């Protein structure tokens, strides 16, 4: 299991005001942000990313828009800096919200440029994006996935073509001369990742051999991984753990109490992340018809809950670290605790090759974040690298 | 459930009721809702023909249909297929937009155009929101703006069968496909409204919080000879909220054309 450190570069000083208003996203005015403080925080977060290289961790960056939960507005901008400040770490963009970006060729250009800049260290996530990203991008939620797949195919074609220009006359995108300079070092393309929470995503990723990632719920991850492995087998190949990724919040400390305290602070990310005004949570078309029928049937007062390993419903907005540990949203404690929890998780999931280590969240201080990263990098990550494929996955 | 009719390769669910001068009625973004009393009220003196738009209710949304232009041509084909003659072309909200797009193209078969709180044109400046962003407000706020009396409009979705809920969910997505960007309008339509060459009447609910009567005046100014009247105690869906008053106004219009 490789470890990729990741932080949303939050603007947590505004969280309390956002919570009072019932929305930290889209319609939370930016007068609640002090730009100078934002600059200090961004520099601090970039220092934390740079530290990862020293302690042997890989790095993942994502982006969100119009929100106090994440100030990374552009993955390529952040990765440009990180690429220059690191030497060894692989750099994962997870990802490019391609259904919300009007110009997929520009996405391919940016990723190829980063691959050159970093000496071939880039991995490329092509993601659907969260529902509340639709409004800031003003992208059409109708036929979203059709647009996603066309953008996906175009990005890959643009990255892997060195004998261009080629033309593209699709339903959503039209170009007359695609010919990206520079082209990527990694041929035909850097590794491609997808994200999702459903069996369908597992199948779609398997059909293309992409890495598939999900986050914060082991209960949702397992059927997706199983669908991936099954589909790969049907297509005549064995999908190893290196095709599966999982994002979790992790607090590690010299004592169990310290690890739990860090995890508690990082978990504020989950407690705030879903706080967004109602109309932006489910733009029509974002979710399947079946999911929308279920939501209409459940009525307006139902809200999102997740189920823990014992089938108990947990409310994301108020859960404790212990409850989050039962849903595999959080791993926490000493390095030994966290290693053992992840080892057991890896076995339950049938082998997960990539851990997306959410190691900073909001109120966790710079000092704590650095210690969390260092301790994980030195004491946990090397042992995870040696985790074998669990027997049941090999036998499945 | 209405009957299915295939038009230009698209299977449409069509409700039809009544005798008399035909009205091709194009429903609002909230759907056809044929079980509300509006249809019976109109059918007392007209033959009402009301298709569910592609994607809504029992109508298919093939991949190749994706713009209001497509809907305009599709319904012009429907009018031709039904051999409509001297009919009234009517539409409310999103359906009013489609009706106007049809009327700037071809009015043969129609004797009059009736637009009830249509969406579809850009009237104000870049910072003016002519049409309330219905997708940026909660459901309760939407109901408060769209209805003079929101309690009349409430639907208990938890009591509807899954097939009907699926039709609603598909319709909500279809509305986005057609009208997300530019939001519920065609920036070029206003410049072509002068082509409408049949008597045109605008009807507006006095409590419409989705599009104002001032927006209605902008429509009226662009369509040669258009008339306009307002309906008290009605919001954005005057045919649902004041079915008898709406039907009486439609009859007065059709009597004079």
Please outline the helices and strands:
The complex is a heterodimer of chains A (396) and B (257).
Chain A (H helix, E strand, L loop, with lengths): L1 E5 L8 H7 L13 H20 L3 E4 L13 H11 L5 E7 L6 H14 L4 E6 L6 H4 L6 H17 L5 E4 L4 E5 L13 E4 L3 H10 L2 E5 L2 H17 L9 E9 L3 H11 L1 H6 L15 H10 L6 E3 L5 E3 L5 H6 L3 E4 L1 H15 L4 E5 L7 H20 L5 H5 L1
Parallel strand pairs in A: 1-2, 1-13, 2-3, 3-4, 4-7, 7-8, 8-9, 9-12, 9-13
Antiparallel strand pairs in A: 5-6, 10-11
Helix pairs in contact in A: 2-14, 3-4, 4-6, 7-8, 13-14
Chain B lengths: L2 E5 L2 E8 L3 E6 L11 H6 L2 E6 L16 H14 L5 E6 L1 H10 L6 E7 L22 H8 L3 H4 L8 H18 L9 H4 L7 E6 L7 H10 L4 E5 L6 H4 L1 H14 L1
Parallel strand pairs in B: 3-4, 3-5, 5-6, 6-7, 7-8
Antiparallel strand pairs in B: 1-2, 2-4
Helix pairs in contact in B: 2-3
Tell me what the structure shows.
The complex is a heterodimer of chains A (396) and B (257). Chain A is α/β, with parallel strands linked by helices and 396 residues long. Chain A has one domain: Luciferase-like domain (TIM Barrel, Alpha-Beta Barrel). Chain A has helices at residues 15-21, 35-54, 75-85, 104-117, 134-137, 144-160, 199-208, 218-234, 256-266, 268-273, 289-298, 321-326, 335-349, 366-385, 391-395, and strands at 2-6, 58-61, 91-97, 122-127, 166-169, 174-178, 192-195, 211-215, 244-252, 305-307, 313-315, 330-333, 354-358. In chain A, the strands form 3 sheets. Chain A has an 8-stranded parallel beta barrel with strand order 1-2-3-4-7-8-9-13, surrounded by 7 helices. In chain A, strands 5-6 form a two-stranded antiparallel sheet. In chain A, strands 10-11 form a two-stranded antiparallel ribbon. In chain A, helix 3 links the parallel strand 2 and strand 3 (91-97). The mean pLDDT of chain A is 94. Chain B is an alpha/beta fold and 257 residues long. Chain B has a single domain (3-256), classed as Alpha/Beta hydrolase fold, catalytic domain (Rossmann fold, 3-Layer(aba) Sandwich), CATH 3.40.50. Helices cover 36% and strands 19% of the residues of chain B. Chain B is built from 10 helices and 8 strands. Chain B has helices spanning 38-43, 68-81, 94-103, 139-146, 150-153, 162-179, 189-192, 213-222, 238-241, 243-256, and strands at residues 3-7, 10-17, 21-26, 46-51, 87-92, 110-116, 200-205, 227-231. In chain B, strand 5 (87-92), helix 3 and strand 6 (110-116) form a beta-alpha-beta unit. Chain B starts with a strand and ends with a helix. The mean pLDDT of chain B is 97. Classes of the chains: A alpha/beta (396), B alpha/beta (257). The A-B interface holds A 27, 135, 138-143, 146, 171, 277-280, 283-285, 289-290, 292-293, 296-300 and B 63, 66, 135-139, 157-158, 160, 162, 165-166, 168-170, 172-178, 180-181.
